[in-house]
Design a protein that fits this description.
Distance between the termini of chain B: 37 Å
Structural class of chain A: mainly beta
Largest sheet of chain B: 7 strands, mixed
Number of strands of chain B: 11
Order of helices and strands of chain B: EEEEEEEEEEE
Helix content of chain A: under 10%
Number of helices of chain A: 0
Number of helices of chain B: 0
Shape of chain B: globular
Strand content of chain A: over 45%
Largest sheet of chain A: 6 strands, mixed
Oligomer: heterodimer
Amino acid sequence: GNSVTQMEGPVTLSEEAFLTINCTYTATGYPSLFWYVQYPGEGLQLLLKATKADDKGSNKGFEATYRKETTSFHLEKGSVQVSDSAVYFCALSANQAGTALIFGKGTTLSVSS
Amino acid sequence: GAVVSQHPSRVICKSGTSVKIECRSLDFQATTMFWYRQFPKQSLMLMATSNEGSKATYEQGVEKDKFLINHASLTLSTLTVTSAHPEDSSFYICSARAFQGLGDEQFFGPGTRLTVL
């Protein structure tokens, strides 16, 4: 079946450090891929997405490229800020009507000044 | 953008009582709504898929008689936790998939934190 695996956290960085959170997936067909962010005490917000191979999603300085050959969708940011501290979830959608997102376990990012 | 609301945001109830959580798509019609459960420091686990006008489809291990889902319209789905017990305490999150015009994106509500005493 479809699944998402993302790196275990927590990830602890200093402000302005480079961030990578690894995400790999297993899926049949051609899924869409997503990164969601959850700030403390809040619901999930879509951070970025990619719907086909080689697409790059980007938002708020974060980027992720849909790599079909390596079945990966790693999240990167060149210079993190304290306000980026949150839990990040990688997810996939099988692109079939009525199917739910499948989430990875989440990676907690903590950025200190 | 598309907005999904949940009500209440927090609820505390006594063991044995029932709690209803509402999920509304405010500015779009949702053909499908999903209910997730999130335990502290863990990922979202899909509980059930709800299609307007039909019975919900529950994931394996989720008791349909305990977690009653009603999707009465294209903008409203409700989750009722019946005879709640402390182990039902969790963060419940709904999401809605748009009928048209918004691609295949799911839009998430802010979640409802249920505490059963």
